[in-house]
Amino acid sequence: MTRHRHRDRHRHRDREAPPLRELAEQALSSVERGYDLLAPKFDLTPYRTPDPVLDALTEALRQHGPFTAALDVCCGTGAGVGALRRAGAARVVGLDFSAGMLDQARAAFPEGVGWVRADARALPFAPATFDLAISLGAFGHFLPRERPALFAGIRAALGPGGRFVFPMAAPPRVGSLPYWALWGFDAAMRLRNAVRRPPFVMYYRTFRLPDVRRELTAAGFTVRIEPLPTLGRRADGTVRCALVVAEVEGADGVTGATGA
Q1: For residue 33, which of 15, 29, 137, 173 is within the disulfide window of CB 3.0 to 4.6 Å?
Q2: What is the model's pTM?
């Protein structure tokens, strides 16, 4: 276990996970206000990226590096930032539009990380600022029609040979309990957004690999999928989680270059 995780557990030792009432209050707010409310207890909820996924991501990034400048898009409380630092990125920036989440991230990483409050759909960076970008667990907050602009902005922020990397779980088997749980959640959110404003955008079933792969390619990336077998396999032998690696063409006209 890393020193950072020891510090996280000590920091949350005297806290309790948010009760249903607080989660409902979050869901009835806007996305930004909801995360501001949830931020102090976010790391105690199931929504935080699990440590095994962070470990697998860290190891994969080490294999792809070294990286000079790395960006965590929708960084939340900083779990992905920790992975970037453990992977050896020389400079790390975390971006989120929730001030409350950024406050928690700054407390976890008081030194050595740049923090930017901004909307991921309009990244405030000069072209070719980074050679790596990641994002964890945030894609459900973007409607399908918003993703092309999101991916184009990330592509513009990456220099030649840069990579946009994120883990993606295999979809649940149709008819399984997880399948119906996700279906029910998305249906409840659509009903909520039909009767209440502002909307709270969070849909699990709209982020499908064929669509995402096509959109990333249209944004100028070359896309490949790398299995993460350490996260286990399903009954049919396929991996439970894989890494999506979207690459920018290098200065030499090919993809696959390491950090800038």
Answers
A1: 29
A2: 0.87
